[in-house]
Design brief:
The chain is α+β, with helices and mostly antiparallel strands. The chain contains 20 helices and twelve strands. About 55% of the residues lie in helices and about 10% in strands. It has a five-stranded mixed beta sheet. Bound molecules: protoporphyrin IX containing FE. Protoporphyrin IX containing FE binds next to helix 6, helix 14 and helix 20. InterPro entries: Cyt_P450, Cyt_P450_CS, Cyt_P450_E_grp-I, Cyt_P450_sf, Cytochrome_P450_monoxygenase. Belongs to the cytochrome P450 family.
């Protein structure tokens, strides 16, 4: 069979393209003749136009209509860019900053129990599914993009590998059991006594939120490192160490989005960058991290010489554990855990106590109920109360539970990833690596479970069957990654609030403004301003 080719058509196509090719060649010649900066400018302009007019719109259409998650309801704007979402909620100052939890609550009210909140993010409002995801030995691991801050990505809280995390926690768990904390009661009582004396001496315009932070910092450092940070003796309750910690906390979103900046800073410091060139907050933060590291390394040195007289929760991490096969922690892991335990132990509990006093002052009838309960056990305003006794008091327990519900514990989303094989939730298939969000804020604000949910009302815990409320009460998280310091925090909350309320009448100071108690979620809740109060010792 013969093939007949019509060569004349090829010739005509070539002729059609010739002017175009010539134009293109001219353009290229022109481009190569430009200086380097102008060339770079052109490249930048080309990419900008390509990304905004072609890549982003095509990707958006795919995400909105063809992606496996596209059937899940939710607003469309969140699909434009995951990176932009991160900037909007965690980095850029503005309406969104620290408010993702409340946005998610609104989305549930609008779209239902499951809602798409980003290209790969799905938020869920269903307590049975929460329990499935946050259970002991769950297959849903912590999300590696969220739990990734250069200052802590090797710490126990940011370990995303389930087995590694279980191993590390096994080293710390014995120090955080109820019995272990009870053995430590004396130093807690001592520090609470000093705290009460200090605020009594100040009397008026006490920045109580800061004083609570100092108290918690002193407890956690004594408990963890066997070394008191001595924050409470600071005249304004604002020592450098806590200032540094606030800076580190405030920069978490930035660190997470631009980790390279911290890596560069570390590299520069290791290679001789003079400290005086750093702005004061950064300098303080660097010093804070280094101090935690030095304390922990000194302890390790002592332990390796057999001097084990100092109590430290790090004892099991200094050497290999032959029985379980666990390796000793590296220098960096130890440093990061030292920083983490300090930070996890100070601000969370302090924010809870701040919220407690803020509401108690506004609800004298609850204060009266609590005081009467306490008077039955603490005969004088300066009486102490043990954790064991305090733990059985119904009104005190109700006040703390309601406070942690309102103050949220950690309001951030604490995201978990769908494991290999995907899952079917609420009628939708969620493929592996979908990131699930279950902020406590959603559950603590369920109106069917907690009627009038924004109202601080401890009496709701005192009537009828509270089992359903307990299920929805998740300030410490649940499952294998539940708060490591839960028993310590509970003990601090009980003892501090009981002794504070028994000893003092309290009121807002003249300079206090309610708007100062508005908070944003910077991982944990951070209030806009100070809880400024006066205290007066109650009569015997
Ligand atoms: C009222 C006080 C506290 C609250 C509401 C609270 C809340 C939480 C929550 C919700 C988590 C889970 C985070 C996640 O899933 O990523 C957590 C983890 C953790 N908490 Fe607390 N916490 C408190 C006090 C403390 C204290 C006093 C310590 C002291 C050691 C502590 C140490 C930790 C650690 C190390 C983790 C990480 C555990 C892991 O990832 O396996 N917390 N906390």
């Amino acid at each position: 069979m013969a093939f007949h080719t019509d060569m004349s058509s090829y010739t005509s196509i070539n002729q059609d393209f010739e002017p175009l090719m010539l134009k293109l060649r001219e353009l290229l010649n022109y481009f190569f003749s430009l200086s380097v900066p102008v060339k770079l400018l052109y490249i930048f302009a080309f990419y900008t136009v390509f990304f905004t007019l072609i890549y982003i719109p095509i990707r958006f259409v795919y995400r909105a209509y063809f992606d496996p998650l596209s059937k899940i309801p939710g607003p469309k704007w969140v699909l434009i860019s995951g990176s932009y979402n991160k900037l909007y909620w965690d980095v850029l100052p503005g309406k969104g900053y620290g408010e993702l939890h409340s946005y998610i609550l609104k989305l549930h009210q609008q779209y239902g129990h499951i809602v798409r909140t980003g290209p790969r993010w799905v938020a869920i409002n269903d307590i049975e599914l929460y329990q499935e995801v946050y259970k002991v030995n769950s297959r849903f691991a912590k999300n590696p993009h969220f739990y990734n801050h250069p200052i802590g990505n090797e710490s126990v809280a940011e370990l995303v590998n389930i087995h590694e995390a279980a191993d590390r926690r096994a080293a710390y768990n014995p120090y955080f059991s109820k019995q272990a904390i009870r053995k430590f009661e004396e130093p807690i009582q001592e520090k609470v006594s000093y705290f009460l004396d200090r605020i009594e001496a100040v009397g008026d315009k006490i920045p109580l939120d800061r004083a609570f932070r100092c108290l918690m910092a002193d407890v956690i450092t004594t408990y963890s490192y066997g070394k008191n940070a001595d924050a409470l003796s600071h005249p304004e309750f604002h020592p450098d160490v806590l200032l540094a910690f606030s800076v580190a906390l405030g920069s978490l979103g930035f660190q997470n989005t631009f980790p390279i900046t911290v890596t560069c800073l570390e590299w520069l410091l290791d290679h001789g960058l003079p400290r005086f060139l750093l702005p004061r907050p950064v300098k303080n933060t660097v010093r804070f991290v280094e101090e935690c590291r030095d304390i922990i390394m000194a302890l390790k040195g002592k332990y390796s010489k057999g001097e084990k007289d100092v109590h430290t929760i790090f004892a099991e991490t200094f050497e290999d554990d032959e029985k379980s096969g666990r390796k000793a922690l590296t220098y960096r892991q130890l440093q990061q855990d030292a920083v983490l335990i300090f930070s996890a132990g100070a601000d969370t509990t302090a924010h809870g106590l701040t919220t407690l006093v803020y509401h108690l002052v506004q609800n004298p009838h609850i204060e009266e109920m609590l005081l009467n309960e306490l008077k039955g056990i603490m005969p004088s305003p300066t009486s102490e109360i043990t954790e064991t006794v305090a733990d059985g008091l119904p009104i005190l327990t109700a006040v703390i539970k309601e406070t942690l519900r309102i103050s949220q514990g950690i309001p951030s989303c604490l995201p978990r990833d769908v494991p290999a094989g995907g899952v079917d939730f609420l009628g939708y298939h969620l493929p592996a690596t979908t990131t699930l969000q279950f902020p406590a804020f959603t559950y603590h604000n369920s109106p069917d479970i907690f009627p009038d949910p924004t109202k601080w009302d401890p009496t709701r815990w005192l009537v009828g069957d509270t089992r359903e409320m307990e299920k929805y009460w998740i300030p410490f998280g649940r499952g294998s990654r539940i708060c490591l310091g839960l028993n310590l925090a509970w003990s601090e909350l009980l003892v501090t609030s009981a002794r504070l309320v028994r000893r003092f009448e309290m009121g807002f100071a003249e300079d206090f403004k309610h708007e100062d108690m508005e908070w944003k979620a910077v991982f944990i809740p951070v209030t806009k301003g100070r809880l400024s109060i006066w205290v007066k010792r109650r009569e015997e």
